[in-house]
Amino acid sequence: MTLELVDVSMSYPQRGGPKLALDGVNLTVSPREFLCVVGASGSGKSTLLSLVAGLTTPTSGEITIEGHPITGPGPDRGLVFQTGSLYPWRTVERNVAFGLELLALDAAERRRRVDWYLAETGLADVRRSLPRQLSGGQQQRVAIARALVCEPDVLLLDEPFGALDVQTKEDMQLLIRQIWRDTGTTVLMVTHDVEEAVFLGTRVVVLASDPGRVAAEARIPLAEDRDLATKRTPAFLGLRASIEDMVRAQHRCGVTR
């Protein structure tokens, strides 16, 4: 499924006049692409993801999936935030199964999906645990499994590993790439971490700040089968430096405007 943003702008009311958060964003995400969006604070990364999720409506422009306008949240999009936002009274498996309760599926298919995604995210052994009994990384695994169990066309990730320690963060990066390869789900991720974007993405888009707009993009011509050693290769380090320069240049432009 192709996700497309056409001339999308977003303004928020505030004292003294509307605040323009996004200005004329044009962006196409192709089927099975892993697109990472980076930018400095004020570039509208989370606003963009909220619009695609259907949680807010753009001031102007249109967002479509396979030509159909997005008018609100739907099962064709799964969303994972920086914190898991799990239901504390539900076990791991019941958190994962939550979205399936809204779909017309028989009990056997629901069990099959829950079992598969618990295994895929390494949670089968803690399926009957409550969120308070889990580590931060495990809680994010539950959130990812819950978003994917409805088998959405697009997985939306909003800084999902930003609150984790370095080792857990790298473990989760490896996990999400493996899930992406196994499921073929299209992924749109926003992050402030350029190294993370280069490691995970097939393409990286850089947003300029104040207002947010597409300033640059870079294809990531690294092998699909990546491991942590990839981060130490000259090709990776060169891509990271180039995109960091793009982000820094756009941040300077925003400050001096």
UniProtKB/TrEMBL annotation:
Q: Could you tell me which Pfam families the record lists for this protein?
A: ABC_tran
Q: Which GO terms describe its molecular function?
A: ATP binding; ATP hydrolysis activity
ABC transporter domain segment(s): 3-234
Spell out the SUPFAM superfamilies in the cross-references: P-loop containing nucleoside triphosphate hydrolases
Sorted keywords for this record are: ATP-binding, Nucleotide-binding, Transport
Matching entries from InterPro entries are given as: AAA+_ATPase, ABC_transporter-like_ATP-bd, ABC_transporter-like_CS, ABC_transporter_ATP-bind, P-loop_NTPase
- Database matches in CDD domains: ABC_NrtD_SsuB_transporters
Q: Which PANTHER family match?
A: ALIPHATIC SULFONATES IMPORT ATP-BINDING PROTEIN SSUB, TAURINE IMPORT ATP-BINDING PROTEIN-RELATED
What protein is this chain from? ABC transporter ATP-binding protein
Q: Native species of this protein?
A: Lentzea alba
